[in-house]
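Subject: Re: docking follow-up (magnesium ion)

Dear J.,

Thanks for your patience while I sorted out the input files. As discussed at Tuesday's group meeting, I've set up the holo structure prediction with magnesium ion included as the bound ligand rather than trying to dock it afterwards. The sequence and the ligand SMILES I used are pasted below, so you can double-check that they match what you have on your end before we go further.
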Amino acid sequence: MIRAVTFDLDGTLLDTIADLAAACDATMVELGRAPHGVDKVRRFVGKGMAVLVERCLTAADGRAPDAELLARAIAVFRRHYAVVNGRAAREYPGVRAGLEAFRALGLPLGLVTNKPAAFTGPLLERTGLADFFVVAVSGDTTANRKPHPEPILHACAILGVRPEANLHIGDSDNDLLAARAAGCRAFAVPYGYTEEGPVDTANCDALVSDLLEAARRVAEINRQTLPTS
Ligand SMILES: O=C(O)COP(=O)(O)O
Ligand SMILES: [Mg+2]
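The structure tokens for the complex came back this morning:
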């Protein structure tokens, strides 16, 4: 039985790349570098804010930034992203209907994102998704981020489910590896941000076209595992 579902945010529920790229580009310009643009920034998203900013600087300078420059750039990024966060963000097709279908199945829902908490809450509020979730675990809620299992395990504990009874749905290998390491089931969506290449479907139980299909599959799995007596 699947008794709870956790969702990734960027690239799974919301297409946030325009806002992320706008903040990255404003950061680069403020630091005297050329902006990278959306298509390049898309490949940098997935391992949280610090890695995103570090990848922008490394791509601009041809070498990794030192700690002082990185800290300064992160502070600049935070300021810019706080302004644009949610401005152009859009739900992917099937997201709201899918979340409603999961809710109709009676399953508690959680969010597990590598985005820092300062941005997760406002984004969920601005896009009207906050009420779907019992818990939101952000990139700085636990000591480790996805692909480490800790944030998903933290969500499972708050949702009151054993990891084996939780399904995690995400767009990148970070989600699938975290889910596997946590002992959860994992579904992948094909439309988000995957860093260098497509997700390795060997790491997931199903590749689903959208959340509505995911909810249908969960309903089917739970029908098949209902006690027969
Ligand atoms: O912040 C990121 O790098 C990606 O966020 P996500 O975990 O919601 O996809
Ligand atoms: Mg994602």
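A couple of observations from a first look. The chain has a mean pLDDT of 97. Residues 8-11, 45-48, 52, 113-115, 139, 146 surround 2-phosphoglycolic acid (ligand 1) (CB under 6 Å).

Let me know if you'd like me to rerun anything.

Best regards,
T.
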